[in-house]
């Protein structure tokens, strides 16, 4: 799949976030609910990390909360929070972006391993990485999905989808689908199917477990095999 419009602008000044995760959403990009201030030093990065983790924990409680509650749980003053974020919505948007950047990182970091494995095992390797957040913090991902829809972060989703599809297309080339346009289109289909199956599991309140991972793996591997 071709990168959506705006991706080039959003990649300016690409740097690193905590844990060595490559940034997709960067300073200067045209983002909804963008931070007031971007961190440039380790201390400010740590402050942002604390604010985002506090927000994640509050979301997991399932209760409503305020910026004051975020600041209190993060151990920072409310004035410090407002240095970086205009309101609660901008904090939630930043958390959403952090989670999605980590998703792309987790999948991309296993690309080389996946390419060295037989088809089904390689697909499963990438699927496990793709559902890592859903499996480890399911209540957080469900609540974030709902809030993302309310905040209209569709442009974010397009950026992340483009990055994920690039990784999957590289995997397909390793498997013998060398025609670039075919690999991109198929990668887009595979990402869409995976997302739909995960969303369906959430909607049915089904666990993100090995049964679902195996189901997704079989579906994707069969589609790839038919294209070889």
UniProtKB/TrEMBL annotation:
Keywords: DNA-binding
InterPro entries, per the entry: Homeodomain-like_sf, HTH-type_TetR-like_transc_reg, HTH_TetR
Coiled-coil ranges from the UniProt annotation: none
MF term (GO), any: DNA-binding transcription factor activity
DNA-binding span(s): 66-85
Span of domain HTH tetR-type: 45-103
PANTHER family: HTH-TYPE TRANSCRIPTIONAL REGULATOR RUTR, TRANSCRIPTIONAL REGULATORY PROTEIN
Name this polypeptide is given: Transcriptional regulator TetR
Species of the source: Acidomonas methanolica NBRC 104435
């Amino acid at each position: 799949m071709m990168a959506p419009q705006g991706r080039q602008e959003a990649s300016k000044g690409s740097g690193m976030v905590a844990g060595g995760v490559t940034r997709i959403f960067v300073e200067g990009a045209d983002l909804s609910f963008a931070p007031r201030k971007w961190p440039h030093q380790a201390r400010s990065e740590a402050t942002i990390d604390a604010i985002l983790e506090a927000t994640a924990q509050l979301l997991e409680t399932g209760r409503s909360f305020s910026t004051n509650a975020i600041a209190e749980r993060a151990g920072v003053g409310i004035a410090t929070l407002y240095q970086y974020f205009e309101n609660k919505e901008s904090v939630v948007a930043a958390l959403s972006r952090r989670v999605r950047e980590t998703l792309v990182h987790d999948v991309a970091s296993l690309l080389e391993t996946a390419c060295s494995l037989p088809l089904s095992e390689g697909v499963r390797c990438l699927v496990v990485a793709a559902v890592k957040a859903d499996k480890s913090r399911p209540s957080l991902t469900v609540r974030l999905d709902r809030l993302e829809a309310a905040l209209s972060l569709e442009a974010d989703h397009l950026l992340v989808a483009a990055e994920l599809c690039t990784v999957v297309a590289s995997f397909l080339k390793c498997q013998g689908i060398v025609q670039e346009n075919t690999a991109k289109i198929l990668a887009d289909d595979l990402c869409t199917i995976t997302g739909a199956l995960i969303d369906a599991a959430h909607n049915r309140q089904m666990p993100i477990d090995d049964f679902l991972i195996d189901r997704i793996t079989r579906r994707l591997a069969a589609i790839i095999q038919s294209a070889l």
